[in-house]
Design goal:
Elements lengths: L6 H9 L6 E6 L4 H12 L3 E7 L1 H11 L7 E4 L3 H13 L5 E4 L4 H8 L13 E7 L7 E4 L9 H20 L3 E5 L10 H14 L7 E6 L1 H5 L1 H6 L12 E3 L3 H14 L3 E7 L5 E2 L7 H17 L7
Parallel strand pairs: 1-2, 1-4, 2-3, 4-11, 6-9, 7-8, 7-9
Antiparallel strand pairs: 5-6, 5-10, 10-11
């Protein structure tokens, strides 16, 4: 692995300059971080924010932060729950191409998104993808699912894998090499995730998962390090050079992403896919670069993503 700078996000952000700014419904941006994230993304021409939340609170945050929001549409909503409901309604009405989380809890937003009657569901399971800019890895590294599906079964993992492949392809990164991770690279009944990994690979072989090269089970080291793969005598196009890491469950994915962030200096852009529109999930701990990258990835995907059954 060659040492790289954080250039991967810059390339994605730069590509959005060729696109019209995406109308983006920003849900309850009632703290400085979430409001400035939307304002900064608008300043780069990535999005056109539609701010949804308590008008007085948003205006007070903007004034304190020295941010000019006079040119943005502001939809008044009394509290965070109402903000989430109103934002989803705006998306259903076709007024936004992206949804962006503000200062409310992720669970509160996703409750409205996943509502069977009034939400943004499709026939595809909704899942989360971290797009990591790791300085020591040559390419963007996708990790899924580390935020939505806690203990996904095999059917859910099929959608998780397909969502990540579609995202990789549609934002212009090409056909991805997909590693289904476990603790070991051999199939054993003692570790159920290895059996699911083998099943996912066979499903890809039979066309039930399309658009990517899928291999597994692979341990983390031999998924991302060629020397580790050679030592274990693991051959194939994915081993040692994976671009998408599919984790066994949310706990493993969350720990992996945070390890890369805090021990390897990585940035983590976050996006939810599988809904009617891409959903930008940002954290107060995110760097400005990661927040801009999250918006850029969502905008690129919204521009060219394939239709999802059930939309």
């Amino acid at each position: 692995m060659d040492t790289q700078t954080h250039a991967k996000y810059e390339q994605l952000i730069e590509r959005t300059r060729l696109l019209p700014a995406a109308p983006t419904v920003v849900v309850h941006p009632c703290d400085e971080t979430s409001l400035l994230g939307a304002v900064e993304a608008a300043g780069l021409g990535i999005i056109v924010p539609i701010l949804v939340g308590p008008r007085r609170k948003i205006e007070a945050v903007a004034q304190k932060a020295g941010a000019d929001i006079s040119g943005f549409r502001l939809v008044d909503a009394p509290h965070s729950h109402a903000s989430a409901a109103q934002a989803v309604e705006l998306i259903r009405a076709g007024e936004g191409a992206l949804l962006m989380k503000g200062s409310l809890h992720t669970e509160e937003l996703m409750h409205e998104v996943t509502s069977s009657a009034t939400g943004l569901r499709t026939a595809r399971r909704i899942s989360h993808v971290f797009v990591m800019d790791v300085p020591t890895y040559a390419e963007p590294l996708f990790i899924t699912d580390a935020a939505i599906n806690i203990f996904p079964d095999l059917d859910t993992k099929v959608d998780i894998v397909q969502n990540a492949i579609d995202l990789h392809v549609q934002i212009g990164l090409g056909m991805p090499r997909v590693a289904i991770l476990s603790a070991v690279e051999t199939v054993t009944t003692k570790i159920p995730s290895t059996i699911e990994a083998a099943a996912l690979c066979k499903m890809a072989e039979r066309g039930q998962i399309t658009g990517g090269l899928v291999d597994g089970p692979l341990a983390f080291d031999n998924a991302i390090d060629r020397q580790a793969a050679r030592i274990k005598n693991i051959r194939g196009e994915v081993a040692g050079r994976a671009q998408i890491l599919v984790v066994p469950d949310l706990e493993a994915g969350n720990m992996l992403a945070k390890n890369l962030t805090f021990l390897a200096g990585a940035d983590a852009a976050g996006i939810v896919v599988g809904a009617r529109v891409p959903i930008v999930l940002t954290s107060r701990a995110d760097s400005v670069r990661a927040r801009m990258a999250s918006c850029a990835i969502a905008a690129l995907y919204a521009q060219s993503r394939p239709a999802i059954p059930g939309e």
